[in-house]
Write a structure and sequence with these properties.
Number of strands: 7
Mean pLDDT: 95
Strand content: 5-15%
Helix content: 40-55%
CATH architecture: 3-Layer(aba) Sandwich
Distance between the termini: 47 Å
Number of domains: 1
CATH class: Alpha Beta
Radius of gyration: 18 Å
Largest sheet: 7 strands, parallel
CATH topology: Rossmann fold
Order of helices and strands: EHEHEHEHEHEHHHE
């Protein structure tokens, strides 16, 4: 039986956590995977794991907040595989180290750094991948799928545990970008959707995963997961949205949150 992503080339930004789980799931479904992240060793380790499992993958180290690096990353993928069918835009991170927090406490530098860390990789790679997809002559077939990864915090705040207002703002902006892109590029066969995870056990969430109060909160707030979600909980939806099974789905934000958005965790 043919795998769901056979023949597709999927570019993934990030090499750990949600990005790594997605990359491995894409490869397991037959995709050629191209990993882009800041640290070469992280990219290499993930790609070696995919290849050892029988997949096909390549990588390029890049700072995706830098325009030239983003362009080079897309070009490297095209050079290796000849096309880009999908983008899984995960790269980003917490702005706490820059001073993200409640709005009245955030410095201008802290705000800008958090916005850039999360917004620039999403914008730059979505732009470069869209350009590649528009330049591909593939007849009547859907030209590609772009998945931006946001956060439930953009629309379902947790003021006591996660008062990081700059992060929430840029994650909300990614949803708005998705909606505008989905509407504009639908005639070209390019689908754009957002996955908004709840609290996931990733390197970014290391602080939360070791805080007993937050762990207890997660058990109440995400009852379907019984605590923090795993990166592998997000991957099946990413595979679906990357595949032709979702060829009629665009412009949607879908939460994978263990119940976060519908649960009262007091």
């Amino acid at each position: 039986m043919e795998q769901r992503l056979t023949g597709k080339v999927c570019l993934v930004t990030g090499a750990t956590g949600i990005a790594a789980a997605g990359a491995k799931a894409f490869a397991a479904e037959g995709a050629k995977v191209f990993v882009v992240s800041r640290r070469a060793e992280g990219c290499l380790a993930l790609v070696e794991e995919i290849i050892e499992a029988g997949g096909d993958a390549g990588w390029h180290a890049a700072d995706l907040t830098v325009e030239a690096d983003a362009k080079a990353a897309a070009s490297a993928c095209l050079e290796m595989f000849g096309r880009i069918d999908g983008l899984y835009a995960v790269a980003g991170g917490s702005g706490r180290r820059f001073g993200d927090g409640p709005l009245h406490e955030i410095t201008l530098d802290g705000w800008s750094a958090t916005i850039d860390l999360n917004g620039l990789p999403a914008f730059l790679m979505a732009r470069e991948v869209t350009r590649a997809m528009l330049g591909t002559d593939r007849g009547e077939a859907a030209r590609g799928s772009i998945i931006l990864v946001s956060s439930v915090l953009s629309s379902s705040p947790s003021p006591e545990m996660f008062a990081t207002h700059a992060y929430a703002a840029i994650k909300g902006a990614e949803v708005s970008l998705m909606k505008s892109m989905a509407a504009f590029y639908a005639p070209a066969g390019i689908r754009v959707n957002v996955i908004s995870p709840g609290l996931v056990d990733t390197p970014m969430a290391a602080r939360a995963a070791t805080d007993p109060e937050i762990v207890a909160f997660a058990k109440r707030k995400q009852p379907l997961a019984g605590g923090l979600l795993s990166p592998e909980d997000i991957a099946p939806l990413a595979v679906l949205l990357m595949s032709d099974e979702s060829r009629a789905i665009t412009g949607q934000e879908i939460a994978v949150d263990g119940g976060w958005t519908v649960t009262d965790a007091r």
